[in-house]
Write a structure and sequence with these properties.
heterodimer; A: about 60 residues; mainly alpha; B: mainly alpha; about 0% strand; globular
């Protein structure tokens, strides 16, 4: 169960990044002047460490 | 003093200063092979972070990403995404790889395969493969270096000579200082690159357009459909983006230099912590992209590989020589340090896994350097196309490497047959079709990887490895 939670949490940012064109393949709306797709990718890059930290809490320590 | 001399003097002073600083930092270490190749497995989280950033963010990050934004627009976003996905995948398997490496005294990827699958033949095959893929990747860094030096020399230099000198210097440096030297030199490189990239990505749009928003508005006006991807199977469209991010993320740590960096860590936690926080470093890429988009409007009309030069040309045209020199120095270090790590990688693999004696590693560094230089003198190609070739080739190693820590039933035969299949298909697409977009706009490397995995699974299903308990100890 714990290892499932770990994998799911860690997998969320990669899925959002790999499938970005299906969620955000748009120039507009611009966010702070940046194209929407670029912002989408940027936000998920920045969210990756928090998601990995959360996933890491479910790691079985040896 | 002419602008060319000013800029080149700044670059020379910074490169030499960096080498001197790194040599000074490592002066107390005796260069026996374990120290030379994996830094005595003593790097804490911070030095490991610096080394990884030093070898991962290359002149491709610096020039290629800007060139991609300049030439193609939105497809360049992939560069921001793939590294991040690569770190997430690595977060799972690299700490385990480190642990096995520590217990078994491993230093290279072929070491790891030999240890896990018990086959010397597989190890030698993969060693040769990595060796021959590392060399074009080094030439890639040299081409980046030439671009920078010819612009910093205001097109008045015979850059071939300068590039050769700089590269031989760095080879001698590696010969002397080993991986710890590369790590310390990366302190300077990472700082300078960060400064240069912030200048390029933040200041340039402000300077020319008033804000990055105004810059993007202009890009969208002059080049409609530049800031989002073409649908479906169009060249560099949605299918290409999805498959390329997937492929390059899977292959992210398969390079010959990467295993060494991982094994140089002091602890499993240092590796894990780095994989968690490295995505933050990806932010440098976004600034490079902004510089590329700015150059697209300010210095339009560059074709093909000239796009890689876009934002440096812009600096040369509109800024004083010391700016060209400082940014150029950052770019030169961004080419030289990954090249130094690759030289070490190629040399350790050749000496340990092909020649069978780790003692040869230091002379091999010099041999590899001369080999790469000779190849470079007779080879010129667009930065990104070379990178894609390297990536497609190196990524074929991923199934065997990653499954080694998860699944005991896979045999050396299954891994080897998978790799051969994958490489042949990757070669077919790249060498015979000369295309980076395969059927349906899919990156052909991913087709090769899928065939690789299919062969591996089929052989594992038909003939699973006997004595699976011997695989993991």
């Amino acid at each position: 169960m714990n290892s499932l939670a770990r994998v799911v949490l860690a997998a969320i940012p990669p899925v959002m990044l790999v499938l970005a064109p299906f969620f955000a393949n748009r120039d507009e709306p611009r966010v702070a002047g940046l194209p929407f797709m670029l912002v989408w990718i940027l936000v998920w890059v920045l969210l990756t460490p928090p998601f990995l930290l959360a996933a890491d809490r479910f790691r079985v320590r040896s | 003093m002419s602008p060319a001399i000013q800029a080149i003097l700044i670059i020379a002073a910074i490169v030499l200063g960096t080498i001197a600083f790194a040599l000074y930092s490592v002066r107390h270490f005796k260069m026996e092979p374990q120290e030379f190749i994996v830094g005595g497995r003593s790097f804490g989280s911070v030095l490991l972070w610096i080394l990884l950033a030093g070898e991962i963010y290359t002149s491709f990050t610096f020039l290629g990403a800007a060139g991609y934004a300049y030439q193609r627009g939105a497809p360049s976003y992939y560069i921001l995404a793939y590294g991040t996905v690569g770190y997430v995948i690595a977060y799972f398997y690299l700490p385990r790889v480190w642990k096995i490496g520590k217990e078994r005294g491993l230093m290279t990827w072929p070491d790891f395969l030999i240890d896990r699958y018990g086959s010397k033949t597989l190890g030698i095959g993969v060693a040769l493969l990595q060796f021959f893929l590392a060399v074009p990747y080094i030439t890639l860094q040299l081409s980046g270096l030439r671009t920078i030096l010819s612009i910093a020399g205001y097109n008045m230099l015979n850059t071939t000579v300068e590039v050769s000198i700089a590269f031989l210097l760095i080879a001698l440096f590696v010969f002397t200082a080993g991986i710890r030297g590369t790590a310390w030199a990366s302190v300077v490189k990472d700082t300078l690159v960060l400064g240069a990239v912030l200048f390029a990505g933040v200041y340039l749009p402000l300077h020319f357009f008033g804000s990055s928003g105004a810059m993007f508005a202009r890009v969208a006006q002059v080049h409609p459909h530049w800031l989002w991807l073409h649908p479906g199977d169009a060249p560099f469209g949605v299918n290409w983006y999805v498959t390329t991010v997937t492929l390059t993320a899977i292959g992210f740590f398969m390079g010959p230099a990467n295993a060494q960096a991982v094994f140089s860590a002091k602890s499993e936690d240092a590796v894990r912590r780095n994989m968690i926080y490295m995505p933050l470093y990806q932010i440098v890429v976004i600034f490079v992209l902004l510089a590329g988009f700015t150059a697209l409007i300010v210095t339009p009309g560059l074709k093909g590989s000239q796009g890689d030069q876009s934002f440096l040309l812009l600096l040369q045209k509109y800024f004083p020589p010391f700016v060209v020199g400082l940014v150029g120095a950052a770019g030169c270090l961004a080419g030289l340090l990954p090249a130094s790590a690759l030289l070490m990688g190629a040399a350790s693999i050749f000496s340990r896994n092909v020649a069978g004696n780790t003692r040869f590693v230091r002379p091999m560094v010099l041999v590899c350097a001369v080999l790469a230089l000779i190849l470079w003198l007779f080879l010129s190609s667009n930065l990104v196309d070379l990178l894609l070739f390297y990536y497609n080739g190196i990524t074929q190693l991923a199934p065997g490497m990653i499954l080694a820590v998860y699944w005991r039933r896979v045999s050396a035969w299954a891994v080897g047959a998978g790799i051969v299949t994958g490489e042949l298909i990757a070669l077919y697409f790249l060498e015979f079709l000369k295309s980076t977009s395969g059927p349906y706009g899919i990156n052909p490397g991913l087709i090769a990887l899928a065939a690789n995995v299919a062969v591996l699974l089929l052989i594992t299903w038909v003939a699973p490895r006997r004595q699976p308990e011997a695989a993991l100890t």
